[in-house]
User: What shape does this take?
Amino acid sequence: MKRFKLVIPVLLLTVVLAACSNQKTDLPPPAQLFTELQHSVSLPEMSEVSAYMLEENTGISPEDYQEAVYYILTEGMSPDQIIIIQAKDEASAMTVEKKLYSWLDYQINSSQIYLTEYMPLLQAGVIRRDGLIVSLIVSPESERITQVYEAYE
Assistant: This one.
């Protein structure tokens, strides 16, 4: 009976730890993840945007991240964009996530006045937080891009 009482807490602890470990994903660094997206999903030609423009557009400071990539369409007016940021720590990840939500909200509000035809694409934008990797995905291929992320879960 004493063994049985000892086994139950050990099993319960094992289940809790296993559940917690499934919540963390081991995504590759942002540049490598974007390269994988390019190979896995049919993306239009995109150009990398500078860290300066990342901060100007989103308010995300280089002090908040270890690595970041920001891509927009090379040609055209469509708001397609992929931002992938590896934050320095949990607090920075929360800050980055809030700023990406603000950036997406700003674009949605702006599209109500200008370029209304892109409103559905912006409204379908996806913001993900996977550990310290925080991403904004605005793309007609967002569902397939999300599947690439989920393959790491």
Summary: Residues 2-23 form the longest helix (22 residues). The first strand starts at residue 46 and ends at 48. Strands lie at 46-48, 65-73, 81-87, 126-130, 133-138.
